Amino acid sequence: MNAKSPGQPPMRRFSLGLQHVLAMYAGAVIVPLIVGSALKLSPEQLAYLVSIDLLTCGIATLLQVWSNRFFGIGLPVVLGCTFTAVGPMIAIGSQHGISTVYGAILAAGLFVVIFAGLFGKLIRFFPPVVTGSVVTIIGLTLIPVALNDMGGGVGNPNFGAPVNLLLSFGVLALIIAMNRFFTGFWRAISILLGLIVGTLVAALLGRVSFAPFHEASWFHMVHPLYFGMPTFEITSVLTMILVAAVSLVESTGVFLALGKICDRDIRSEDLTRGYRAEGLAIILGGLFNAFPYTTYSQNVGLIQMSGVRTRDVIMTAGGILIVLGLIPKVAALTTLIPTPVLGGATVAMFGMVVSSGIRMLGSQVDLNNHENLLIIACSVGMGLGVTVVPTLFNQLPQAVQILTGNGIVAGSFTAIVLNLVFNLRRKRSVADASQPQGAAN
């Protein structure tokens, strides 16, 4: 079956669509929980954030699946909030407020829509040595967030209490066990099951309040700009544009992989429509006060495993996500997760972000090349260094601090510049070597 084949029977289509929702649900839910908790949102605000994220995931998926001459790649892809945006959103929100987060998201989405046609040319500035370094830096900056949650959260008077550590390490152990002894679907939802089991154990210990669930309504309407009018700050905008660029690089790999699975030749025009749909999804995330969105690779594995490649299944998944997003009680259930339980799950997830970056570097980059090693060393060192010592560049002019005030931006900028320096030199050397002797005569 390819992406254009006849649809599935209704019940089978629903079950296959639900399977796709379950495969990406943990990733879709955990991002708002992490960001909302880090920004000290109230239970009501956190429930809204989860609800609107699920709804926007569904809309973003439909935008990508529904192909037309302007946007949508028309492949069976599922969109969800990108993990690469978690660290930047927390940093921006903590320093400038949540309205600046959504200003940066809107600007990044607009950037992607406008430059979708040119991104195929810009992608050469993001080879694996750059994207792998950026993903690694993002993962490293997230680890402290997970460890603080494991202890009970920053400012918690019982930080590091034995019961908090028991819950967090218990969840982590369960996730590890499921990945050790299970494969396929059960391994895919190990994070989700870890959160559920951890929350149930915490409830038995009397550490879960069900008040948010009881107070939540059964239905609500979308409330654009829920957190107020967006504000724009240049460093935050540049950070989010960089995150969007990295997400597009990752999405390109997913598009090409799905094209092979669906026996479809992916042209530059298809990629442009795919990029533009992703940009529109990011803009929606900014307007609805949700998140930047990108193509989820875990659903590609599910398509390959199931052998079902029809778009109607993914459209059904998008519809399920929209319905779930309109039911606040579903979102309220996820807000019951205690902070230590969340920390136990996120230490594995954030560590996976680091390992994803390392995998990109190990499988796609020549690590025997001294120049590549230097790019990785300097960019990761600068990114992690600025994260640990954020005041290092405080005495420099404000214009310079745009590139040095955030570890992700500083590390990414270092990787891009060093890659240009070394690659330009290498290309010129190759060009000179290929020039025939006496060709100028």
Automatic annotation (TrEMBL):
> Is Membrane set as a keyword in this record?
yes
Keywords of the record, alphabetical order, are:
Cell membrane, Membrane, Transmembrane, Transmembrane helix, Transport
Q: How does this protein lie in the membrane? A: Multi-pass membrane protein
Q: Where are the transmembrane segments?
A: 21-39, 45-63, 70-92, 98-118, 125-147, 159-177, 189-214, 234-258, 313-335, 341-361, 373-393, 399-422
What's the domain of life for this entry? Bacteria
What the entry lists under Pfam families is as follows: Xan_ur_permease
Q: Could you tell me which InterPro entries the record lists for this protein?
A: NCS2, UacT-like, Xan_ur_permease
Which subcellular locations apply to this protein?
A: Cell membrane
Keyword Translocase on this protein?
A: no
Please state which protein family the record places this protein in: Belongs to the nucleobase:cation symporter-2 (NCS2) (TC 2.A.40) family.
Protein's name according to its UniProt entry: Nucleobase:cation symporter-2 family protein
Species whose genome carries this gene? Paenibacillus oleatilyticus
